[in-house]
Design goal:
The chain contains 9 helices and 15 strands. It has 353 residues and is α/β, with parallel strands linked by helices. It folds into 2 domains: 156 residues, HAD superfamily/HAD-like (Rossmann fold); 174 residues, Ribosomal Protein S5, domain 2 (2-Layer Sandwich), CATH 3.30.230. The strands form 4 sheets. A 5-stranded parallel β-sheet has the order 3-2-1-4-5, sandwiched between helices. Strands 6-7-9-8 form a 4-stranded mixed β-sheet, with helices on one face. The longest helix is centred in the last third of the chain and has 20 residues.
Amino acid sequence: MQKPYLFIDRDGTLIDEPKEDKQVDTLAKVKLEPGVITALLQLQQAGYTLVMVSNQDGLGTDSFPTADFALAQDKMMEIFTTQGITFESVLICPHFNDQNCDCRKPKTGLLTNLMQSGKVNLAKSFVIGDRETDTGLAKNLCCKGLLYDGDWPKIVTQLTTLNRKASISRDTKETQISVKLNLDEIAKGNINTGLGFFDHMLDQIKTHGNFMLDIQAKGDLHIDEHHLVEDIGIALGQALKKALGTKSQIARYGFALPMDECLAQAQIDLSGRASFVLNANFSREKIGDLDVQMVEHFFKSLTDNANLSLILSVSDGNCHHQVEGLFKVFARALRMAITTDKSQSLASSKGCL
């Protein structure tokens, strides 16, 4: 299976590059770039595999002894490792520019074996570095390049708000569920669960959330709707969690709306912590082919698997309006919460969600 890779420069991108000699050859010179630890953890969480690619002029010569390089390199790698950051490979070109080797960036020789392995999804991979040699490497690899300018949070935002989408398949002895979700695509997709009223409610999430949602589901409806509704909630929650990635630059919170005589309210927090409360006194036990008990069960399954906090409330009234109001207000609250907010890199004082 192919994966997205990040080919990351070292000096001037991961660690500070000394202006005087441009060599990190003592422990005193090992200084991490601001925000790099948090950024790399977020990018790993978003599914990127990390590879370090660096030119080290004259490594192994009298001008840059290997022992001096190794002392600083080992300390840097120790810091990354203890913080949970893993580089699949560390690739170093030791040559001077005038040696005209095949491995010095922007040439691709260091990456030949990896490119031939078939593991790299180049369409979703990036080179990150602070020099033209890094953007040149990206061009030669036929992938995208990002020029680092001292702002790691900006790079995280660029890489984690692209294609916020996910596909989840859930197959059990009771149900077969397929959910496709794209938070950045205008509402499209089809909903087919075999439950007419439930299809109508899921369509409210798609329409009022204003994103692409496609759900194809089959289950043991000859018994009842319990397993099908629960498993759709589980799969949709998993898809939402996956699509949100690191949740960089989202508004996070979000809503109240009237549904005719009913007032429906939703308080949502994409917090990374699962919590659900429903305040409702439904006036009927069943609407169409859906037992209203399954409304609570659906949202509980969704919140548990999406790791979000949700409080839903609806006033007394027509039961159809009560339930539809809850699905609509959830979708509107979610739409508000997933909206990108470029005024901040992450809506949490903890540094992660």
